[in-house]
Amino acid sequence: MQAKKIAAALVAGFTALALSACGNGIAGGGSGSGGGAKTTFRLAFNQTEKHPQYKAAEELGKKLEKATDGRYSIEVFANETLGSQNEVVQNVSDGTVDMMYIAGPVLESFNKDFIVFNLPYMFDSPEAQAKVFADDAVMGGLKTSLEDSKKITVLGALHAGTRNVYNAKHAIKSPADMANLKIRVQQSDSQVQMIKDMGGVASPMGQGEVYTALQSGVLDGAENNETVFNALKHDEVAKYYSYTRHLMIPDYLVMSTTVLKGMPEADRKALLELVPGAVDQANTGLLQYAADSKKASQETGAKFNDDVDVAAFKAATSGLVKASINTPVRQALCDAVQKANAKA
Ligand code: GCU
């Protein structure tokens, strides 16, 4: 972590230098209009270069460069080099980082309506989820909801795998097997409540700290998709992976509103038009990456258990879902999901 913090501080230092050199006062970009100036957006990512979201962002950068005659491109900083999602989102808000991928629960504290897509057993399938996220009549309000308060614009919502519980002790078949297990969750109230309802002890923390906490026994387990389980080597220290299938939480591609609005209109339009293609690429890639990750974890000796009483976990968490859908806006989002579930 120390090395990461130093790297983040260095990057921040370079940013400050670059800014004073540009002298445009708009952090991280937005000055692409005149004099052939070239702006490279910095996109923060908390996973590895192998992840399809990394590849999609790289591709997006190349296409953006072409579409804007070289005025804009994207550099992706993987592996939390710019900081954890909780830290970096503040930098996107103040415009010192241009873009990032961020998990839904982190946005809950800015606008509680984001909770709907972070609730257990909300989406039946990646297809249903993609249908909802592609519909701007459903998503438009959420996407712009942080612009005034946080200066953050949501560009797109992505499939981020199906999350399951894993731990160092035993396979999980029913909520009773979760008793006394300290399970890492993402940092939000909904995630803490969810693990409590599933029968475990919730421990919220950033993704980068999980491996060490598992290794030292501070945590017994965590919950995530197969890609994180393998890529971050959690499979070495918590080898029982059980298909609770309790969450399909989206990641969002977000951008500093100040930087986005500082782009010339045609360039901004070009960027916005390229986003759905990047989302599709990342979503398709993730399904294959999850399957490959499972195989790789099995080879290291991890045990996958699909004998899980999913209905019991669903019943145990239904109170959280009901209590969270408590405004007309959240109800409308939930209705849209149910409609997509029925059709997909
Ligand atoms: C997923 C998700 C990340 C998130 C991570 C986590 O892998 O794609 O955005 O940070 O889970 O659990 O923290």
TrEMBL record:
GO terms for cellular component: outer membrane-bounded periplasmic space. It comes from the Bacteria. One of its GO terms (biological process) is transmembrane transport. GO terms for molecular function: carbohydrate binding. Keywords: Signal. Residues 1-20 form the signal peptide. Transmembrane segments: none annotated. PANTHER family: DICARBOXYLATE-BINDING PERIPLASMIC PROTEIN (PTHR33376:SF2), PTHR33376. NCBIfam families: dctP (TIGR00787), TRAP_S1 (NF037995). This is TRAP transporter substrate-binding protein DctP.
